Amino acid sequence: MPAPGENMKINGERLWDSLMEMAKIGPGIAGGNNRQTLTDEDAEGRALFQTWCDAAGCSMGVDSMGNMFARREGTDPEALPVYVGSHLDTQPTGGKYDGVLGVLGGLEIIRSLNDLGIKTKHPIVVTNWTNEEGTRYAPAMLASGVFAGKHTQDWAYDKLDAQGKRFGDELERIGWKGDEVVGERKMHAFFELHIEQGPILEAEGKDVGVVTHGQGLRWIECTIIGKESHTGSTPMHMRKNAGRGLALVTELVHEITMNNQPNAVGAIGHIDVYPNSRNIIPGKVVFTVDMRTHILDKLNAMVAELMARAPGLCEGIGVSFSAEIVGQFDPPAFDDRCVTAIRQAAERLGYSHMDIVSGAGHDACWINDVAPTAMVMCPCVDGLSHNEAEDISPEWAAAGANVLFHAVVEMAEIVE
Questions:
Q1: How far apart are CA 311 and CA 313, in angstroms?
Q2: Degrees (nearest 5) of the Cα angle 362, 365, 370?
Q3: Which of 44, 45, 341, 365 has its CB surrounded by the most CB atoms within 10 Å?
Q4: CA 376: distance to chain centroid?
Q5: Of 49, 155, 136, which is closest to residue 90 (Cα–Cα)?
Q6: Model's pTM, two decimal places?
Q7: pLDDT value at position 67?
Q8: Of residues 127, 139, 63, 58, the one with CA closest to residue 99
Q9: pLDDT tens digits, one per residue of 154-189
Q10: What is the Cβ-side half-sphere exposure of residue 384, based on CA atoms within 13 angstroms?
Q11: Which of 300, 184, 313, 299 lies closest to 241 in space, CA to CA?
Q12: What is the mean pLDDT of the chain?
């Protein structure tokens, strides 16, 4: 199929203005956003997005998980649509671009096609996935996970937030529970534009990241049992310090991931120490190890090494170790044809680019299981994300959106 001409570009100023306008909804306290899923602010952001989609001549569909689908018709009513999008919900202290760039970048494709009077054979559908962040309702990528058959809708509906409010009830309360059956839509392809959320592209001086893989993930919940005793009166050689076991396992996680470079990461994030008193040696520590890489065999080997070595380290200091996997997904390899369309678009437009592995999870990782999928990334300042100081430049946003534009339109096929 013919590729779009190199002079075909989106309106970068309009995209940036839209990003700034959306950022006025659910402002944070330090320049970012707090537009958590299924809040009144989320409902307001959705309404603004629909207003823009209506103005662009799109029809809007909403499924029973609240996923929004704004459709621009193609010339062939039998052709499967090309989907493009991301999410509008944010972290409690989120930035203005995480997710939002992908949704509004998709909308800008529709607007630019309208400006240029270009028709495509395949319809183009801009998507806002519900609850990608997973902050208010765990897990992350919840609605795209239901769409892809990873979770049941009833299970998702029954998720509770910290105040005990049920997902299904809050979705209905804000007025965005649609009638469509989740997952019945069929896709010709799906593309997602996202900020990198890491420092690689900026450090390498690249305009665009061509995402070839997503990282697989394992969350391993570990428990170390020692013996509580007085910090002042228990001799050092008689202690059974669960906190010391935590320290040993922390170093083990670092060692394992460093020995599996490149593109392997691991850390201990969530930690509960019992009884968590200043003058009591910890008798129990419960913590979660997060291990990720884009190669399945490597990921499984890293976890196996942790499980094999940690018990011995702990036994050596008189404490016990046990663990179970409490969260996981295998690394997705994105569709070769879609990835190639992104790479060739970057080359055609003259943007510097490099292949990259996504360090974070995205809706595209689930949709990859049900449709040909790929991602475009743009740099973010210092790799900072999930932070109100998250920042990108208008030029980076435009470059990513232009590459997205070309890849989507190539897949949707221009009608001459």
A1: 6
A2: 135
A3: 365
A4: 13
A5: 136
A6: 0.89
A7: 98
A8: 127
A9: 999 999 998 999 999 999 999 999 999 999 999 999
A10: 13
A11: 313
A12: 96
Would you call the peptide bond into 235 cis, given omega within 30 degrees of 0 as the criterion?
A: no
State how far the alpha carbon of 346 is from the alpha carbons of 70, 206, 355, in Å: 26, 11, 11
Cα distance between residue 393 and residue 376, in whole Å: 16
Nearby residues of 191 by Cβ (< 8 Å), 6 or more positions away? 82, 83, 84, 338, 342, 364, 373, 374, 375, 376, 404, 407, 408, 411
Neighbour count for residue 319 (Cβ, 10 Å): 26
The pLDDT of 33-40, averaged and rounded, is: 98
**pLDDT tens-digit map of 70-115:** 999 999 989 999 999 999 999 999 999 999 999 999 999 999 999 9
Q: Which residues neighbour 229 within 8 Å (Cβ) at sequence distance 6 or greater?
A: 239, 240, 280, 281, 283
**Cα 341 to Cα 338: distance, rounded to the nearest angstrom:** 5
Q: Cβ distance 166 to 160 under 8 Å?
A: yes
Express each pLDDT in 216-228 by its tens digit. Answer: 999 999 999 999 9
Span 266-293, average pLDDT: 97
Region 6-29 average pLDDT: 96
- The one-letter amino acid code at 203 reads A
Residue 139 CA to residue 184 CA, distance in Å, equals 22
